């Protein structure tokens, strides 16, 4: 029979273009769906009803969706289970071949057409009994030297595990990793983590690398350069941990992919290696040394973290919340690392006469939260011999009212300051246009 009408309906949407657009979208968001050194196994994407695993391009696309559950359903399958799709959830395309038979001149031709249907992850549904996650039997064993690097990285970003994606979010300053037991080996887990940590060094609070801080397009020179830096950084760190033999072959293949895009740029490798080395020095918390043999000499460590700002006489004294807020608006807001859309915590360092010696950026968080560690708050104050400190952070909402977390953190820091004999004078929360003082609100105690 002829199927011209059916053919026309199937050709209304270019399935090839649909899948291509999906892959480009993933790549532009920083996800390379086929660069995935961790296992699927029983957690590979599969249909919830038939338990049939997806293959080919479907495997890449569904893996890249980043859901923890491997189970997927069509809309009709969701309905058959008397369940429903959560409001606002979007479907994902799954492609398959459909064979049409067409009679022409007494002969029957079989014509393959690429088709697709839409599926939803079980996590996007309501009313479906979610089965227990399959037990994972991985070969992961922590490597002490690698763990030590991650644990001692200065201002380390938040690292979360779960889902099927390894990526770094500059906006949230957060790394997401699949569970360690999913990786093919412990070495590949750490190599992937080192790749993301190298990306994280480009954050404004660390090395302020423009390939991370600026919006860049997939395939552009800055994007390719940053990927090359991250892979070189991962290779350097792997070599430092003596696991390079199991990771460099994979890294080299990935690097070559980006080199082909920039093969006419003869300076690329040298410049990328220099950036990767800076990233590794930051992660390892070491100062770069001269190459070649040098005679050993003792070192004098000096404070370099304070940002000393020339101030008019009227602003040097910081003995009330208003003077602290004035300093924030004249010095902190103008700094390149400041982002009004996320919370930033700084510490003002004061001498015995309550005059400002400088300030120290402690943490850059997200829209409504950030990580604050006592060590980071008082580290520079101890070395700089500060007599007292003033804590300050902003609320992107513009409303300076303190949260319960703000109060608890402040009281923890007050107690720590009492032990160190460094007085916490106040905690000023800056809004727009107002500010508030936790001391004036009665949250301080002697």
Short summary of the structure?
This protein is an alpha+beta fold. It is 35% helix and 19% strand. The longest helix has 20 residues, at 221-240.
Order of helices and strands: HHEHEHEEEEHEEEHHHHHHHEEHEHEE
Name the average pLDDT: 78
Beta-strand content: 15-25%
Cross-sheet strand order for the largest sheet: 11-10-12-13-14
Main structural class: alpha+beta
Number of domains: 3
Explain this structure:
The chain has 446 residues and is an alpha+beta fold. The chain folds into three domains: 4-126, no CATH class; 144-284, no CATH class; 313-437, Cytidine Deaminase, domain 2 (3-Layer(aba) Sandwich). It has helices at 4-10, 15-28, 56-64, 75-80, 144-151, 186-200, 210-213, 221-240, 248-261, 268-284, 313-316, 321-332, 374-383, 404-420, and strands at residues 46-47, 71-74, 84-85, 92-104, 107-121, 125-126, 158-161, 167-169, 174-177, 344-350, 356-364, 388-394, 423-430, 435-437. α3 links the parallel β1 (46-47) and β2 (71-74). α6 (186-200) packs across α8 (221-240). The longest helix has 20 residues, at 221-240. The chain is elongated. Mean pLDDT is 78; it is low at 1-13, 245-255 and 290-305.
């Amino acid at each position: 029979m002829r199927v011209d009408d059916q053919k026309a309906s199937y050709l209304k949407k270019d399935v090839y273009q649909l899948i291509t657009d999906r892959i480009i979208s993933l790549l532009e968001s920083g996800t390379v769906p086929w660069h995935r050194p961790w296992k699927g196994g029983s957690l590979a994407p599969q249909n919830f009803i038939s338990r049939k695993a997806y293959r080919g391009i479907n495997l890449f696309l569904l893996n890249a969706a980043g859901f923890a559950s491997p189970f997927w359903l069509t809309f009709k399958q969701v309905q058959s289970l008397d369940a429903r799709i959560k409001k606002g959830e979007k479907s994902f395309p799954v492609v398959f071949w459909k064979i049409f038979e067409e009679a022409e001149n007494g002969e029957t031709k079989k014509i393959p057409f690429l088709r697709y249907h839409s599926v939803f992850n079980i996590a996007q549904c309501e009313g479906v009994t979610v089965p227990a996650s399959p037990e994972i039997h991985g070969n992961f064993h922590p490597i002490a030297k690698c763990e030590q690097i991650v644990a001692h990285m200065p201002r380390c970003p938040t690292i979360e595990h779960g889902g099927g994606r390894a990526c770094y979010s500059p906006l949230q300053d957060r790394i997401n990793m699949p569970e360690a037991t999913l990786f093919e080996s412990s070495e590949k887990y750490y190599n992937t983590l080192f790749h993301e940590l190298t990306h994280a060094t480009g954050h404004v609070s660390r090395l302020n690398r423009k390939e991370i801080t600026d919006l860049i397009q997939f395939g552009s020179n800055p994007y390719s350069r940053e990927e090359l830096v991250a892979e070189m950084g991962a290779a350097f760190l792997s070599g430092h941990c003596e696991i390079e033999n199991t990771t460099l072959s994979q890294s080299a293949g990935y690097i070559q992919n980006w080199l082909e895009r920039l093969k006419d740029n003869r300076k690329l490798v040298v410049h990328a290696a220099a950036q990767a080395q800076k990233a590794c020095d930051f992660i390892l918390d070491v100062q770069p040394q001269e190459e070649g043999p040098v005679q050993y000499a003792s070192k004098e460590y000096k404070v370099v973290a304070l940002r000393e700002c020339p101030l008019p006489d009227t602003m040097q004294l910081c003995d009330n919340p208003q003077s602290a807020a004035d300093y924030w608006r004249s010095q902190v807001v103008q700094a390149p690392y400041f982002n009004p859309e996320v919370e930033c915590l700084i510490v003002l360092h004061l001498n015995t006469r309550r005059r400002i010696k400088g300030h120290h950026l402690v943490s850059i968080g997200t829209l409504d939260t950030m990580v604050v560690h006592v060590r980071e708050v008082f580290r520079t104050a101890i070395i700089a011999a500060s007599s007292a400190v003033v804590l300050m952070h902003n609320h992107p909402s513009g409303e300076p009212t303190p949260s319960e977390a703000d109060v608890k953190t402040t009281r923890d820091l007050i107690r720590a300051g009492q032990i160190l004999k460094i007085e916490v004078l106040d905690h000023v929360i800056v809004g727009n246009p107002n500010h508030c003082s936790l001391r004036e609100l009665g949250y301080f105690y002697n």
